[in-house]
């Protein structure tokens, strides 16, 4: 059981680093889909057992639906509509961002070791992986220019929070978990509308140019 | 006394709510003004009765939900006296304001203005009854913010917005000093914001000096003392006239109130504090009146006169402090009573003058003196009221300004004759300066009254009319109050003596204040009689003679026009000439040239020396220095996120590196 969970968590890290090192937006979205599937499978693997409650299954199914189906579809459509395929000029070059990503993962593992949680955690890897996903998502958010990749970064950041919540799943009520999912979905909708409008208004998706809206 | 003050606050707030909720705007003005007037009448009667009967200090504590401070209100003679001043001025101003705002009902949300006015009045009452620093500061801030919104009443004009910002910034610089002051006092009092406990602790001389300077900056900004007065000449002209009347008449006096309260927390007064206040008072009075003389805008002129009068009040306080330190209770009593009486007097005549200026603005649409003239015929009641206010502010008998200035003079003479050393020299300086300031004030009001009310209208097109009765009656009542105090000063001194004795602290004086001023009644009566006799002589001389109205002799010039009258600037110029070094005058001249000159012009503008030479460069320097930090505000989304990321990582690393490594 632990072997499978650890494998899944390592898969999450791999998708993190993959998103960080590719310029193709389609590939980013596919990596995000895989991450979503992994996140949907992890809770039953961690907390499930012979007496798996219905709630756990429902959460897993809803997570799968939203993170692996709905959101990637929305993103793909936004990409198609906006006719962008590549992250052309990231602020940080791909090599450097890979390097930064690896060091952030290392930092996350150090923090995960040093941080003491009040409750026992099912796997030693969860905490570092959740922080790593959080940091890498943040890095994507910071280093990319296109609005779609920024949404991808935001979603990874949220995945990190989701994983962190997984450590505390027994403490975190079911309703809160679902509400967070709903929030993310709404967030992606709003961003989709934003992307649409940015494109309509400026004919590009470069968020850096938004600085010209400053007073 | 406390239930009464709380009832006044409640009634004021209720009137404000009525002004907001009442559907018809004009009726809302009338109803809420009635409510406010009633509240002020209640406060006036209650505080006067408490001052006469001398009720013991009271205090009331209640629980409140803030983690710091306490809901502690109280009253003593000083509170009662300031409540009297607030009520007397605000009641008339509220009544006047209802008439003043009526012209704006179709253009503006006058209900909001009226509600803010009620809030301003209520917060002022709150300031004087608060006995806890937190409660005090809350009321103080509400007062500032309410008055800020009132100042920016005509916010579509850029100079009004600018005045509002200057006022807001100046007030917050002041209140920052107050925060620091009360923070220091809090520590000295062993962790209490209660006024009773703050007063009970002695301080080290160094800490007392620092606290005194903080109190001066904090309260002096509100009081408009030099050099912290810069907001005042902008804010008063920008505000509607009844608001200027209340701000100049009472609100800035609460700076004096705060200073008096703060002095009680600093332990025994010292000589230098008294001399410092004396010096600041002298500078404020002199520069205030000089700048007033240089102004062309009527309300700006009045605003600078507020600086002058706050200076006179501060001189009184300084004399009082010196008397206390040098063990001369008579001097202390004279100084404090002069200062306190001048607080009330200035409130009365300054609000009267601002209201008259507002009526002029209403009737003619301008406050620029060089466009006015000959208004005495069109607006006789306003002219008479302005004249009464002008005589009072110049400190001439038989009006009330004379009484309070006379008390300050008496104090200064006593200081000069009974004290030795520096204090005596300072007293002599006070006498000389007060005389100079009085003379300049007379010149200034001769100019203001002469240019605005006498002569011919400089702009022929406007046909002004006198203000409505709801504006004329409050002015007339204010003028009557000025005359009444001037004619019967013993009556008002009976009210002043209790708070003045409380401040002077020493009961060991045999000075009977009402008896001291009793002779002034005969002075006032004889001056009034002289005026009446002169008027009768004039009537007698003119009897059975032909009276004609004709143009003034124009030195043989064929076609004199009203524009050839003496202007405000030309009247003031010779008086200002010797003081040119103290003023920041700018002159633009285009001299006539050739045998047949086509055009020529001459303009003089006076800026504020303290402002333009010291404070503006200082503020600009600070702004430039702080402007460097704008580099981090670039509007780049990604970089903002980088800030968050870096902060997060740094905090995590910092916090976790302090915990031991877990293997």
What does this structure look like?
The complex is a heterodimer of chains A (215) and B (663). With 215 residues, chain A is mainly α. Chain A has one domain (2-213). Chain A has helices spanning 2-20, 25-47, 54-82, 94-114, 126-143, 147-167, 174-202. Chain A is globular, with a radius of gyration of 17 Å. Chain B has a two-stranded antiparallel ribbon. Chain B has a two-stranded antiparallel sheet with strand order 3-4. In chain B, a hairpin with an 8-residue loop joins β1 (58-62) and β2. The radius of gyration of chain B is 27 Å and the shape is globular. Chain A binds chain B through residues 91, 107, 110-111, 113-116, 135, 138-139, 141-145, 207-208, 210-214, and chain B through 634-638, 641-642, 644-645, 648-649, 652-653, 656-657, 659, 661-662.
Question: Can you give keywords for this protein?
Answer:
heterodimer, B: about 675 residues, mainly alpha, two-stranded antiparallel sheet, about 70% helix
Give me a quick take on this structure.
The complex is a heterodimer of chains A (215) and B (663). In chain A, 74% of the residues lie in helices and 0% in strands. Chain A is mainly α and 215 residues long.
Oligomer classification: heterodimer
Overall mean pLDDT of chain B: 87
How much of the sequence of chain B is in beta strands?
A: under 5%
- End-to-end distance of chain B: 71 Å
Order of helices and strands of chain B: HHEEHHHHHHHHHHHHHHHHHHHHEEHH
Please give the alpha-carbon distance between the first and last residues of chain A. Answer: 56 Å
């Amino acid at each position: 059981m632990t072997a499978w969970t650890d494998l899944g968590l390592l898969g999450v890290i791999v998708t993190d680093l993959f998103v960080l090192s590719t310029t193709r937006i389609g590939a980013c979205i596919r990596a995000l889909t895989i991450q979503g599937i992994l996140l949907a499978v992890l809770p039953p693997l961690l907390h499930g057992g012979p007496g798996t409650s219905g709630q756990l299954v429902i959460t897993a199914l809803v997570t799968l639906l939203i993170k692996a189906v709905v959101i990637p579809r929305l993103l793909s459509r936004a990409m198609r509509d906006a006719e962008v395929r590549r992250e052309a000029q990231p602020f940080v070059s791909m090599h450097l961002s890979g390097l930064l990503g690896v060091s952030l993962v290392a930092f996350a593992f150090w923090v995960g070791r040093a941080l003491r949680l009040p409750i026992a955690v099912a796997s030693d890897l969860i905490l570092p992986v959740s922080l790593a996903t959080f940091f890498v998502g943040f890095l994507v958010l910071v280093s990319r220019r296109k609005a779609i990749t920024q949404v991808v970064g935001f979603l990874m950041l949220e995945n990190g929070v989701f994983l962190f919540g997984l450590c505390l799943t027994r403490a975190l009520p079911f309703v809160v978990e679902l509400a967070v999912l709903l929030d993310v979905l709404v967030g992606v909708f709003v961003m989709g509308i934003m992307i649409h409008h940015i494109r309509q208004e400026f004919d590009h998706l470069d968020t850096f140019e938004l600085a010209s809206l400053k007073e | 006394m406390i239930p009464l003050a709380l009832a006044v606050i409640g009634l004021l707030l209720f009137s404000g709510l009525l002004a907001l909720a009442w559907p018809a705007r004009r009726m809302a003005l009338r109803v809420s003004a009635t409510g406010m007037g009633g509240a002020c009448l209640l406060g006036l009667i209650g505080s006067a009765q408490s001052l006469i009967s001398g009720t013991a200090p009271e205090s009331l504590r209640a629980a409140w939900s803030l983690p710091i401070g306490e809901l502690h209100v109280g009253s003593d003679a000083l509170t009662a006296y300031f409540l009297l001043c607030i009520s007397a001025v605000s009641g008339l101003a509220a009544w006047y304001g209802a008439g003043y705002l009526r012209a704006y009902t179709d253009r503006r949300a006058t209900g909001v203005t009226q509600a803010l006015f009620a809030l301003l009045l209520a917060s002022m009452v709150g300031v004087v009854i608060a006995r806890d620093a937190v409660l005090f500061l809350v009321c103080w801030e509400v007062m500032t913010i309410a008055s800020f919104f009132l100042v920016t009443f005509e916010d579509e004009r850029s100079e009004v917005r600018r005045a509002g910002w200057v006022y807001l910034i100046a007030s917050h610089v002041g209140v920052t000093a107050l925060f620091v002051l009360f923070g220091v006092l809090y520590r000295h009092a062993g962790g209490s914001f209660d006024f009773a406990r703050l007063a009970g602790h002695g301080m080290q001389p160094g800490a007392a000096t620092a606290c005194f300077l903080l109190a001066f900056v904090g309260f002096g900004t509100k009081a408009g003392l030099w050099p912290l007065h810069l907001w005042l000449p902008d804010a008063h002209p920008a505000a509607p006239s009844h608001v200027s009347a209340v701000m100049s008449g009472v609100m800035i006096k609460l700076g004096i109130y705060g200073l008096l309260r703060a002095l009680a927390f600093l332990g025994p007064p010292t000589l230098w504090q008294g001399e410092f206040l004396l010096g600041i008072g002298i500078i404020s009075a002199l520069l205030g009146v000089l700048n007033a003389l240089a102004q062309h805008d009527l309300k700006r002129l009045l605003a600078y006169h507020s600086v002058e009068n706050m200076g006179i009040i501060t001189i009184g306080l300084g004399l009082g402090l010196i008397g206390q330190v040098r063990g001369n209770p008579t001097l202390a009593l004279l100084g404090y009573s002069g200062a306190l009486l001048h607080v009330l007097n200035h409130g009365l005549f300054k609000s009267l003058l601002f209201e008259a200026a507002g009526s002029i603005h209403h009737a003619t649409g301008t406050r620029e003196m060089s466009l006015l003239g000959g208004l005495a015929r069109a607006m006789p009641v306003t002219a008479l009221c302005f004249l009464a206010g002008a005589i009072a502010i110049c400190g001439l008998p038989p009006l009330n300004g004379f009484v309070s200035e006379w008390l300050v003079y008496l104090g200064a003479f006593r200081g000069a004759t009974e004290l030795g050393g520096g204090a005596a020299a300072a007293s002599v300086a006070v006498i000389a300066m007060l005389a100079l300031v009085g003379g300049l004030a007379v010149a200034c009001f001769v100019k203001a009254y002469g240019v605005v009310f006498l002569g011919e209208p400089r702009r022929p097109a406007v046909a002004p009319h006198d203000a409505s009765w709801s504006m004329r009656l409050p002015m007339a009542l204010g003028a009557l109050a000025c005359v009444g105090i001037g004619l019967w000063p013993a009556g008002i001194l009976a009210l002043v003596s209790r708070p003045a004795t409380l401040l002077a602290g020493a009961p060991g004086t045999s000075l009977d204040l009402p008896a001291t001023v009793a002779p002034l009644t005969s002075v006032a009566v004889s001056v009034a009689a002289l005026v009446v006799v002169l008027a009768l002589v004039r009537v007698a001389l003119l009897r059975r003679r032909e009276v004609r109205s004709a143009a003034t002799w124009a030195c043989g010039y064929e076609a004199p026009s009203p524009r050839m009258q003496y202007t405000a600037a030309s009247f003031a110029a010779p008086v200002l000439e010797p003081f040119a070094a103290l003023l920041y005058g700018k002159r633009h001249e285009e001299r006539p040239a050739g045998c047949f000159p086509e055009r020529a012009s001459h303009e003089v503008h006076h800026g504020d020396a303290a402002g333009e030479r010291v404070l503006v460069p200082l503020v600009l320097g600070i702004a430039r220095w702080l402007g460097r930090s704008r580099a981090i505000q670039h509007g780049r989304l990604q970089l903002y996120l980088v800030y968050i990321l870096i902060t997060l990582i740094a905090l995590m690393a910092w916090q976790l590196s302090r915990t031991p490594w877990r293997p």
